[in-house]
Amino acid sequence: MFRRNAITSAFLMMVPFCQVNAESLTVEQRLELLEKALKDTQSELEYYKKQSTPVPSSVKLVKKPEAVLVKNDNAAGDASAPALSSVSMKDFSKFVKDEIGFSYNGYFRSGWGTASHGAPKSWAIGSLGRLGNEYTGWFDLQLKQRVYNEGNKRVDAIVMLDGNVSQQYSTGWFGDNAGGENYLQFSDMYVTTQGFLPFAPEADFWVGKHGAPKIEIQMLDWKTQRTDAAAGVGLENWKIGPGKVDIALVREDVDDYDRDLKNKQKINTNAIDLRYKELPLWDNATLMLSGRYVAANQSSSEKYNEDNNGYYQWKDTWMVGSTVTHKFTGGGFNEYSLLLANNSIASSFSRYAGSSPFTTFNGRYYGDHTNGTAVRLASQGEMYLGDDVIVANALVYSFGNDVYSYETGAHSDFESIRAVVRPAYIWDKFNQTGVELGYFKQKNTDLSGTNYYESGYKATLFHTFKVNTSMLTSRPEIRFYGTYIKAEDTDLDDYTFADGKKDQFAVGAQAEIWW
User: CA torsion sign, 245 to 246 to 249 to 253?
Assistant: First the structure.
């Protein structure tokens, strides 16, 4: 009753303004009308306050139930069966979620930082480690909706939106920003099914904008396995023999540039990605074998431009490898991988920073690629040295011969080592204190025999608030850190921090979460 009268009073307060067009009022007259309407509303409020009855102390407020009662379908055929059954709220919530068939998953990182010389700058994250060395606001948002589920057949629609939000400016409008920091994309948009393929009813058969699953070296923020897709079709978790097969055929077009890097033409390429995974080895250890081949489907005009107008010639590229994953009985795991590649994927191996196996450099295809090869050995994981000590690692050794380097040109050789270790003391399930130490060194030798060196180190002292003890598999996590970075050799990028300095000390706080 009170709400209805209050709304009526509020409406009456607006009447004087509605009458302005019919009758011209002075400011004093308008204020007088508003004051009268306000007094009337206050009088009604006091009246209804006096009429209200307080809740007796014997009456308890309703609490969230621990369980709910649901109809027992078996009761109709069994007289002894109860008509209702008790179901926990957790199970009931899961049932409702499964019944609706919708899920929302995501990831983001964000935080604050400042440095000894101006704004903090990241350097060589892919070699020195990311903790205390990243200042971007990356996010992934995935929406999944089941649209059909009957018998052994199921269909789901999945959309993934990801991008970056500026951490420097107070505004972060996409498409119109000061530093070009804000961007987003629909990285995935596909349909996945089960039960439609007679020869693989248990496999996930998908069609759309998607690719084979990515495998990341988390501490270095780049992928050992990655296939970008504009559109594709594939199978995942196809049971064959002792293991499972993932296979993807994807479109991966590239922009081919001329030698001035000013003009470009689009080249249609298709990539096939094949993996045989979860092959049992010894106790708690599995093997994955992988292969990827990227081939062009060129038009006559594109080939003509390569032969006559100075455009770089496309070279098919491949990558093969194996990965062993060992899970420790006391918790933790380690993953060891060996990868071999040629042409433009080998060029990606030669990068000291981000080293994901791309066929392009920042989306551009260029370079006189040869038939030289590159090799990469990597280890990553974490292990418990005791109940209160955990250590994470990322170790990578790479070398290549007669490959195109984006820094030192065609027919280059390179060799690099990067090592990051992160030991921490576990105070309890929710607190850890530790240090991340990173070091890398790379040598490139160009066609003339000249050597170029790139090297540096990083030390980060941190304390984290957590929800579990694992460093690599538990989130959310809130970190407080102090980081010192030193760029020793910079022949490949001539990098400097603010004021032309080769070192930087930074402090900050960062949150990272997935759900």
Answer: negative
Q: Which strand (E) or helix (H) includes residue 491?
A: none
CA atoms of 368 and 314, how far apart (whole Å): 9
Q: Quick check: helix, strand or coil at residue 74?
A: helix
Report CA 48 to chain centroid distance, whole Å: 55
- Give the separation between CA 213 and CA 277, rounded to whole angstroms: 12
User: Of the candidates 431, 446, 442, 448, which has an alpha carbon nearest to the alpha carbon of residue 489?
Assistant: 442
Structure tokens belonging to residue 255: 């922009």
Assigned token pair, 436: 């991340």
Each residue of 23-51: b (16+ CB within 10 Å) or e? eeeeeeeeeebeeebeeebeeeeeeeeee
368 C-beta neighbours (distance < 10 Å), count: 12
DSSP state string for 86-152: EEEHHHHHHHHHHHHTEEEEEEEEEEEEEESSSS-----HHHH-STT----EEEEEEEEEEEEEETT
Express each pLDDT in 111-170 by its tens digit: 999 999 899 999 999 999 999 999 999 999 999 999 999 999 999 999 999 999 988 888
Find out whether 384 and 332 touch, Cβ atoms under 8 Å: yes
Map residue 344 onto helix, strand or coil: helix
